[in-house]
């Protein structure tokens, strides 16, 4: 029973935990500096676990904290089994895992399989000794003309997916930065090395992996080198090993692909791959719908989303450590979003927008609340991004995606309470812009203000966690006679300890108050609407399934549809 994490005091064994969880992405480097080095560390994060428990998150996602030259935020790994000394030591990492588990919080970490840093000893050996044991660990070629149909992903910096190596006098393949050579997955030794790394970290007690850039593992002439059958075969083998040796741990795919392609990363009921996949296309549509003030963009992307196998779950999000990617929208939608959300070219990066949630929404509290309400009620397990719970700002004067990776703002004191170091030695400066200055935007002040965004987000997580239907329930769009109103139900039969429940969510995407008559399916006719937050009774659904709701600007309701089998 090595795999079950049963010994951890705060965790209950639940192989389906990820379907009801709220995730929280936290950069170790950005959260809390315990040593006065200017960068966050494991011990600093341990010191903030009580805060995260209080906030109500169920699982932390830690982006790479491994040995790395940090030329891509740690996604350029130089040793998969070592932690970056500035973050701490391996025993400090395992202490973090234990302390999180003791509070009922799980931890998944990033696993960057597609590529390594060019500083990784495997690459150094590969370029120096083509006939040596690592000679075939990377994708080498005498020409830079192979795989011409593969697009360039980092269009701001790269002009080719091939770079000439003067040592080996051959080109090497890289889907991302030219300092990140792709591993050669055709080589069984590479695949075995990946299994070995998974076992290493799972043996240390982590609860799963986010699989970075997973569509690009294999290459094949005549294709765009994305989502290839061999990649899926490899993932199915990896999953079989995890199920066998580490049941209860999860694999979460980062595949920035259209819904029809991304569902393949779940595999099938008989041949599963990942437990979860991020749903990239839905995220930009939430922002798009807010500006267009229409429900349709959200309705249509969900209509295009195929069913997923039982016991799997989407991962949803509003922001993360990367740019807000616009790869999954049409050119017309992209142009509109750049106009709405990135009027200054400095706000753009690659195919996306390098801004945080609050500045994107011009710090509009009703919009920030509505977009949270959407991501917390639509299908999927939501993943929050550190600092967004207090409405942190960004710094578009920093390079690349560092704009959204600045230190967490804890207090109005020196370095926002993040570090005691000389401010000039911080890994990145704290936000000190007019609206988002850490003097005003910080955890301490928001904890002391009952109406703060922080308390509001916490309240939302509490309500969500009391209603497993948000994680487990079916999703059905409900007809509304107002194009600005998005109405849908989440409903489920009793499931283990979770009772049957039905919830109606109604969202006003307009910047003006709206009324809408909603027509619910027959099964909900005659039910009473009860507000999930305050318990107030609202109108009953008429015998023909209709009910009329009025909503304020950017307002939303979560109603229990009471009167069926579910408890009062
Ligand atoms: O390791 C390279 C990158 O891998 C992830 O990239 C993803 O983010 C890109 C945008 O920054 C996106 O366009 C691409 O489709 C993704 O695979 C990781 O999240 C990045 O931080 C990292 O640079
Ligand atoms: Ca590859």
UniProtKB/TrEMBL annotation:
Which InterPro entries does this UniProt record tie to the protein?
A: GH, GH13_cat_dom, Glyco_hydro_b, Malt_amylase-like_C, O16G_dom_2, TreS/a-amylase_N
Gene it is expressed from: treS
Q: Which reaction does it catalyse?
A: D-maltose = alpha,alpha-trehalose
Q: Which SMART domains match?
A: Aamy (SM00642)
The question of whether Ribonucleoprotein is a record keyword is answered with: no
Q: Which Gene3D superfamilies does the annotation name?
A: Glycosidases, Golgi alpha-mannosidase II, Oligo-1,6-glucosidase, Domain 2
Q: Which family does it belong to?
A: Belongs to the glycosyl hydrolase 13 family. TreS subfamily.
Q: Where is the Glycosyl hydrolase family 13 catalytic domain?
A: 25-425
Organism of derivation: Intrasporangium calvum
Q: Which GO terms describe its molecular function?
A: maltose alpha-D-glucosyltransferase activity
The enzyme's first-digit EC class, named in words, is isomerase
According to UniProt, the name of this protein is maltose alpha-D-glucosyltransferase
Q: Which UniProt keywords apply?
A: Calcium, Isomerase, Metal-binding
